[in-house]
Specification:
Blueprint (H helix, E strand, L loop, with lengths): L5 H21 L4 H6 L1 H9 L17 E4 L9 H6 L38 H15 L6 E5 L7 H12 L5 E7 L2 E2 L2 E2 H4 L5 H7 L3 E6 L3 H14 L5 E6 L22 H12 L6
Parallel strand pairs: 1-2, 2-3, 3-7, 6-7
Antiparallel strand pairs: 4-5
Length: 278
């Protein structure tokens, strides 16, 4: 039986392969972090969530998307090329002086709403977008993909207070909850749980889902646009760092380690397999 999410599943496979080849060509980038957020990005851009237009990255009424963990903003570059925001040959020049695609997300790149990388700064910018959208009656939504590590920054919790106080129900944070930072596992380094209760206490709507299952991601994204209850929304998307590459999955060292020749071939074979993200 053909899944209702077959198209999105195919897109997941495509995105992972594009990311991997883009990075290994220049031997620099963050593969594992980009792979864990793949279904989140695909759901936003291809799942009927966003109000966007092909070939128009600056469409005035567009919904905004920010990958706050700037080291994995590169995971959206293949999508930007697919949507016509940038030329497809830019992917071949990623990370080189000849191209415009940088290792970290930069505002000079069409499709990137703000430069990110300094953890927890982008959420504040996104809250500003959402505040202005309400004030100016523009009615666009702002989505932010957060990392686990950003929860160690006080600025994130200041933003949480601001967004709740101003009733920014057009603001959606999605935590790529792969439970790791560059140094290891969150719960061993500095415990974050119970994460859902903490965000609820700040006055946010909170949902907890499997971040690799379209049957969970798509419905909750649709629900966020119907709530209109005066609260911003946080979605905890439980994911696996390095998802799709067998030896990278949930292994800390692959945060910014590059695979050797034999590992590249293993990954290519892994990424050819039909992963199920129902």
């Amino acid at each position: 039986m053909k899944s209702k999410y077959s198209y999105l599943i195919k897109k997941s496979k495509w995105l992972r392969s594009e990311i991997f080849e883009m990075v290994v060509k220049v031997n620099q980038g963050h593969i594992a972090s980009s792979l864990s957020q793949a279904e989140i990005l695909i759901s936003l851009y291809y799942g009927g969530t966003l109000n966007i237009k092909k070939n128009q990255p600056n469409y005035e009424k567009r919904d905004r998307v920010i990958v706050s963990k700037g080291h994995s903003a590169m995971g959206a570059y293949p999508i930007f090329a697919d949507l016509g925001y940038i030329k497809k040959n830019e992917l071949e020049k990623y990370g080189t002086p000849k191209g415009k695609l940088r290792i970290y997300g930069d505002k000079s790149i069409p499709g990137v709403e703000t430069t990110s990388g300094s953890l927890a700064q982008a959420p504040g910018i996104a809250s500003g977008f959402a505040y202005c959208s309400k004030r100016d009656k523009q009615n666009f939504y702002t989505y932010v993909i957060l990392s686990d590590g950003e929860h160690y920054e006080g600025q994130l919790w200041e933003t949480a207070l601001f967004a709740s106080h101003y009733k920014l129900d057009n603001l959606v944070f999605i935590v790529d909850r792969n439970k790791q930072i560059i140094l290891g596992k969150n719960e061993e380094l500095l415990k974050l749980e119970p994460l859902d209760k903490k965000w609820k206490s700040f006055g946010w709507n909170v949902f907890n889902i499997n971040g690799h299952k379209y049957s969970e991601i798509i419905p909750v994204l649709k629900k966020t646009k119907k709530l209109k209850n005066g609260k911003p929304t946080l979605i905890i998307a439980n994911t696996v760092k390095g998802k799709g590459v067998s030896y990278m999955e949930d292994v800390t060292r692959w945060h910014n380690t590059m695979p050797n020749k034999s590992q590249i071939e293993i990954a290519r074979q892994d990424l050819k397999k039909n992963c199920i993200y129902e």
